[in-house]
Design brief:
By secondary structure, this protein is mostly helical. Among the domains are: 176 residues, no CATH class; 87 residues, no CATH class. It is built from 15 helices and no strands.
Length: 380
């Protein structure tokens, strides 16, 4: 720039990008995003492998160990082959990496599940992994006793990691591009971002992704650990408490016992899950969207208000309907059953609103209390 020329004022970047911490190792920064995710999921297979080994289940342990080792070898070879190529950090590449994560990566994740189970087709295993990593939670195994505990852990772990990937992607990829629901509250046009591109933005995309991942992962893991401990205190068994904790944080609804209503935590466990499912009612419960046009307070957030209206309004309507039915059969004076019926409705509605899909242990109490059929269709 010539001496005396006026300096151009560049708008400040997001707060997370003002202080640039030390970059991660160069090989990690140069690897394509899809390879990084593939490598992380491959390394995570050693967790169910170790768990199966502790349970003296060597066939399952070998399935996960060798699958994880194979995945790491493949990722390493591809990374070495691409090491000499200049890295490209375009926005389209990040979106394609997400597509590959949710559509192609389950092909590899299904390998240990199919090899360990041996009583289902590979397509069923692939479908189950797609359902898990997208946190859909469509359970194709109707009887949970069909799966060994390491397989239950793997399914919940894939869903938990898929939820983390989606959370990081929403903050680091979709929000800056005003996509994935952020276009509703963003100032910029969908797909265009909020601010004009600046020199070095290609590098900043990868840096932003790294910073967001390093910031959100401890929070996500810490909250999961808190739910796990609280469920253990409530009386739930170790594996079931861990799987339910991961399922609530990822909103997948995966359970090793067929649901919360088949667990041992009871009402105390449901209260714990209810409180943490409330995080799914609004994005403001876990972050402030830099692309939004207002609503910094939770009580003024439209998402939270609508969610609260559903969680309280729908059970209240169901409660009044049940109360009228109970009054007709002279059961309206049973306050204990009335409160249990209201709680069962409120917990189940919260679970469905948050897309978790758990049923309360008291969900059928309203039917027994009033003598009416449970209006489950209202939750669909």
């Amino acid at each position: 720039m010539a001496r005396g020329a006026p300096n151009k004022v560049r708008p400040p970047g997001p707060p997370a990008l003002r202080s640039k911490p030390a970059d991660p190792p160069g090989i990690l920064m140069r690897m394509p995003l899809f390879l990084q995710i593939w490598g992380i999921f491959s390394a995570s297979m050693f967790v169910p492998a170790a768990y199966a080994l502790v349970r003296d289940n060597h066939p399952h342990s070998q399935s996960f160990f060798y699958s994880g080792l194979l995945g790491l070898v493949i990722v390493t070879l591809i990374a070495l082959a691409l090491a000499a190529r200049p890295p490209r950090f375009g926005a389209a590449g990040q979106l394609l990496a997400l597509l590959g994560t949710f559509a192609l990566l389950p092909l590899f994740l299904a390998v240990p599940l199919h090899d360990a189970l041996r009583t289902t087709s590979f397509f069923n295993a692939y479908f189950d992994m797609v359902s898990a990593i997208t946190t859909t939670g469509a359970d194709i195994f109707a009887d949970p006793r069909r799966l060994e505990p390491p397989l239950h852990l793997w399914r919940a772990q894939v869903a938990w990691m898929g939820g983390l990937v989606m959370w990081i992607a929403a903050s680091a990829i979709l929000a800056p591009m005003s996509l994935g629901g952020f276009e509703i509250t963003a100032r910029g046009q969908p797909g265009r971002g909020v601010v004009a591109p600046q020199p070095g933005d290609r590098t900043d995309r990868r840096r932003r992704l790294w910073i967001v991942a390093r910031t959100l992962t401890p929070i996500y893991a810490g909250l999961t650990g808190v739910v796990w401990v609280l469920l253990l205190v409530a009386g739930e068994t170790g594996l079931t408490a861990l799987v339910h904790a991961m399922s609530v944080m990822s909103t997948s609804g995966i359970s090793p016992v067929g649901g919360v209503h088949h667990g041992q935590a009871g009402l105390g466990g449901e209260v714990v899950l209810f409180l943490f499912m409330a995080f799914a009612l609004s994005r403001l419960t876990f972050s402030s969207d830099t692309a939004t046009s207002g609503h910094g307070r939770l009580d003024r957030d439209p998402e939270f208000r609508i969610g609260l209206l559903l969680v309280l309004g729908v059970p209240l309507l169901m409660f009044l309907r049940h109360w009228s039915g109970a009054y007709d059969v002279d059961a309206g004076d049973n306050l204990d059953q009335a409160l249990r019926a209201f709680w069962g409705s409120m917990f189940t509605v919260m679970s469905y609103v948050s897309t978790t899909g758990f049923l309360s242990t008291e969900w059928d109490t309203a039917q027994h209390w009033s003598g009416l059929g449970t209006p489950g269709l209202i939750l669909m």
